[in-house]
Amino acid sequence: MHQLSEEPHRTQHLQHADTIGELRSEIAASSPDAASALANSPFSKYRGSVSWVEGFEKNLHILAKNQYPGRSMGVFTSGGDAQGMNPAVRAIVRMGIYLGCKVYFIHEGYQGLVDGGNSIHQATWASVSGIIDDGGTIIGSARCKEFRERPGRLRAAKNLIEHGINNIVCIGGDGSLTGAHLFR
Fold it and tell me: Which of 25, 56, 79, 134 has its CB 3.0 to 4.6 Å from that of 172, i.e. a possible disulfide?
């Protein structure tokens, strides 16, 4: 159900609970930015079959189901464990699957990326069920000295190619993201 509520600073906010469908006319009339963005969106052909949210920026964000069929992505965690790693892994896996991607776990971070083999396997919707409250990271986390050198990164690239992975998501801190930047 759509509801309009008045918030401070006279801003109108659209609330919805997992609605998929068209923009109701009274909402469109009260929010010209949202109506205009929807009408001019390159995704307007998906109207009626996509989820939409009016954000703080007053932009319309549209994510169509199966928007990226044939793409694949690997997700790994690196460095020390931190709060929120499992929820981040779950969100990435589920959004990837929703968008039509194959999603792969890369166990033990950069070490798993270099080792390949059994360290890389496909994730499913069910494989991330019930992990939000678990501590640590379900896919493990490890640093890798081999990855710092070019031959190690070439092995990692070969392993990604063998599994058909063309995108990776690195969850970690500064050192982890420095490694991802080096890998580009």
Answer: 79
Convert the pLDDT of each residue in 24-65 to its tens digit. 444 444 555 555 655 665 555 555 544 444 444 444 456 778
DSSP three-state, residue 91: helix
Q: Which residues span the domain enclosing 57?
A: 3-63
Do residue 40 and residue 22 come from a single domain? yes
The 10s digit of each residue's pLDDT in 158-168 is 999 999 999 99
Domains identified in the chain, total number? 2
SS3 166: coil
Between CA 80 and CA 174 the distance in angstroms is 11
Length of the chain (residues): 184
The CA–CA distances, whole Å, from 4 to 35, 118, 167 equal: 15, 50, 39
Handedness of CA 172, 90, 158, 102 (dihedral sign): negative
